[in-house]
Write a structure and sequence with these properties.
alpha/beta, SsuD_RutA_monooxygenase, Luciferase-like_dom, alkanesulfonate monooxygenase activity, 8-stranded parallel beta sheet, globular, oxidoreductase
Length: about 280
Amino acid sequence: MQYGFIIPRGNVHEILELTQEAEEAGWDGVFYWDGINIEVVGEMYDPWAVLAAMAVRTNRVRIGAMLTPPSRRRPWKLARETVTVDHLSHGRLVVPVGLGALDDGGFGKVGEVTERKERAQLMDESLDILTGLWSGQPFSYHGQHYQLEEMTFLPPPAQQPRIPIWVVGAWPAQKSMQRVLKYDGLLPTAAAPGEHGNLKPDDIRAMRAYIEQNRTSTTPFDIIWEGETPGDNRAQAAEIVKPYIDSGITWWMESRWLTPDLDVIRTRIRQGPPRIV
């Protein structure tokens, strides 16, 4: 069982300070997020520049951005960015992906695709291209949206057989869950709009059973869940986390998206992860 912390805000120097504090406090992963322009948030930074800095300021923790929408990232550029950060971190990068939040002006305000079905198609093709270019072998691609003449991208990632990809899976949508089976981790959500917060441990248990029954790969697979725990009450934190651990998650992500006070976030980081002894 591993525990990560998502840093939701702060200027770029504060983000790096919090990253180092999280590693020192015993968290297993430190994550930023991928956004272009969300006006209510205020200060935002390019995730790949931030992750590169996080990579060289830490030694142990997993790093990544929660999460990247491949539909608005050129997959060959994303391949270069991810491999670079993977090498800088000596193989500690994770790539969480999903359709993305449309309240980001990086979609509708700049003419990117917003229709759900087409974003899903772009994500599937982008992941095919990403993993193909990561191979370090000659690769070409002919899809509905992307056409690539043969290219070889070197170096390949530090991690082999590839950088882990965590994919949003909407339960119980078969197409969404079948996509998850091809990769290395599940970010659970509900298929019905607005129902993500209503997923319960029993839903996670059902998703885990589906993956165990249908996934053919024998490589490691993670199930990731976000939530909040009190850092000053270990017993209460354990009560919150334990049902999800029992349901099959392998990562608990401490997320404070709505916490405006950076000092509160820093205090929670310093208190360390809600490990169950």
